[in-house]
Amino acid sequence: MSATTTAAELAQLVAQLAQFAQALSDQVERPAPKPNARELPKRVLLTVEEAAQMLNIGRTSMFKLIRDRQVETVQIGTLRRVAVSAVEDYAARLVAESSAPAA
């Protein structure tokens, strides 16, 4: 560009570049969504960390609940898993105990 390029010419060039960019983006192929994507089934077993997240407590506190047999777990090989129902049962017990009248 020469030193005599005017602001109007620059504005016209910018507009043309924007149109060119738009035309290019329209031509780019976008991946099609997967047809019949299989939905994952509802999980029934959680890791200890996931169970702790459900209760909004830390991992160490969750292991203490497990060790104290407050929350039941299952062993799958070397893996320890917590049933969703066990977490829900524990939470229900906490609510029942906190709402029971003090003796």
Work out the strand percent.
Answer: 5-15%
Low-confidence stretches: none
- Based on DSSP secondary structure assignment, what is the total number of beta strands? 3
Between the first and last Cα atoms, what is the distance in angstroms? Answer: 90 Å
Structural class, judged by helices and strands? mainly alpha
| Helix proportion range | 40-55%
Topology order in helix (H) and strand (E) letters? HEHHEEH
Strand order of the largest sheet: 1-3-2
Tell me, briefly, the overall form: elongated
Mean pLDDT: 86
The main pleated sheet reads as: 3 strands, antiparallel
Task: Report the radius of gyration as a whole number of Å.
Answer: 30 Å
- How many H/I helical runs? 4
Report on the architecture of this protein.
This protein is mainly alpha-helical. The chain has a domain at 45-99. The chain is built from 4 helices and 3 strands. It has helices at 7-27, 48-55, 59-67, 84-99; strands at 45-46, 74-76, 79-83. It has a 3-stranded antiparallel sheet with strand order 1-3-2. A hairpin with a 2-residue loop joins β2 (74-76) and β3. α2 crosses α3 (59-67). The protein is elongated and about 90 Å long. The mean pLDDT is 86.
